[in-house]
Write a structure and sequence with these properties.
This protein has a two-stranded antiparallel ribbon with strand order 1-2. It contains 18 helices and two strands. The chain folds into two domains: about 160 residues, no CATH class; about 130 residues, no CATH class. Pfam families: Zn_clus.
């Protein structure tokens, strides 16, 4: 089976199309994609593009951006980040200190985090505006958030190309890869139209970034950072290995079905492990990231092809998302995913299989 390209790269075009990883027709003042989706359509200013090019050429990723990049709206965003957004990122006890205190300190010398912080705050405010039905404010904050994301991305890509040994820079890369996931999730919450299943599959690819950073530097600075953001209980950890074995195929209670192939069975096993982590660590949002970060390309290909069994397994993931709906950037995502799957089922007149447990422990 040929490998699937989950998203194409677009280096020009409007901010919204870049964020959704789709080709932009660059029609002015409103591209056809934004016109069809009824979303705000803005383009990076020429001077912003020049600043990005200059930044890359001079390797200034460790320096603060020019002051004229920021305006009064960014002051509003910085206030929001400091007083609210940073306090509600992750539920771990150390999370507010890291995001409210440590990240701004590191951002003094890392422009990628400066723009990341502002993008987070903008998306936070866009979600607030969306919840109260303020379309104008929602569009304003969402567009600014996507703008800061797009300014930061070239800096981030440059950092990825360097085999960096500096522990602080490793942390910066890890943090911004997490920021990208949060911005992507929250931007969907503040859009006028909900993402379809194809767009959700593209978004899931972002979860592999923090996972790769963790695997690459798990014995270095990232380990300390991850431990602070996602604390573990040693008495619980000793039991998780056994529970993980019980989540595998052929174990008592594992669902059975004649159409459950190895690809979907492995995805279902990973989903059951995520639920196990969620039960023992109900405040650990990594349980939400576990499934999209670990499922195989073959499973995502089956979802893309709208195979009923793959859609059924993906639908089971909705309950994991629902558990974390109190996080501002997750919120209604369980409904978004469920609706996208059911839209496909209805449009193509599919019948999703029913999974029955293989034993008395299902």
């Amino acid at each position: 089976m040929p490998s699937r390209k989950f998203h194409g790269k677009t280096r020009t075009g409007c901010i919204a199309c870049k964020a959704r990883h789709v080709k932009c027709g660059e029609e002015r003042p409103l591209c056809n994609n934004c016109r069809r989706r009824n979303t705000a359509c803005e383009y990076l200013a020429d001077n912003a593009k020049q600043n990005e090019t200059s930044s890359e050429a001079s390797s200034s990723m460790d320096k603060a951006p020019e002051i004229d990049r920021f305006d009064s709206l960014d002051l509003v965003l910085m206030h929001r980040y400091s007083t609210s957004t940073s306090l509600h990122m992750f539920p771990a006890p150390e999370s507010p200190r890291i995001w409210q205190v440590e990240v701004p300190l590191v951002a003094e010398t890392h422009a990628v985090l400066q723009h990341g912080m502002l993008a987070l705050a903008a998306m936070d405010l866009a979600c607030v505006a969306a919840a109260r039905g303020d379309g104008a404010s929602m569009a304003k904050f969402r567009a600014r958030g996507l703008l800061h994301q797009q300014i930061a991305l070239p800096i981030f890509r440059e950092m990825l190309m360097v085999n960096e040994e500096d522990e602080q820079k490793q942390n910066v890369v890890f943090l911004f890869s997490a920021i990208l996931v949060i911005v992507a999730f929250s931007s969907a919450l503040s859009a006028k139209t909900r993402p379809n299943l194809e767009e959700i599959i593209n978004l899931f690819v972002l979860f592999r970034g923090p996972r790769a950073m963790w695997e690459q530097h798990q014995n270095g600075a990232n380990k300390e950072l991850v431990t602070a953001l996602f604390p573990k209980d040693e008495s619980v950890e000793s039991s998780l290995g056994l529970l993980a074995l019980q989540s595998r195929r052929n174990s008592p209670g594992f669902p059975i079905h004649p159409d459950l192939d190895e690809v979907c069975a492995e995805a279902l096993s990973q989903l059951r492990q995520a639920r196990t982590v969620q039960r023992w660590y109900p405040q650990d949002v990594r349980a939400m990231a576990w499934f999209p970060a670990l499922v195989s390309e073959n499973f995502m290909q089956q979802v893309h092809e709208h195979k009923p069994m793959a859609l059924k397994v993906l639908l089971e993931y909705v309950s994991v998302l629902a558990h974390f709906q109190d996080r501002w950037w997750i919120s209604l995502w369980h409904r978004i995913l469920s609706s996208a799957i059911h839209d496909v089922v209805k449009a193509e007149q599919l019948t999703l299989p029913r999974l029955s447990a293989s034993g008395p422990h299902g």
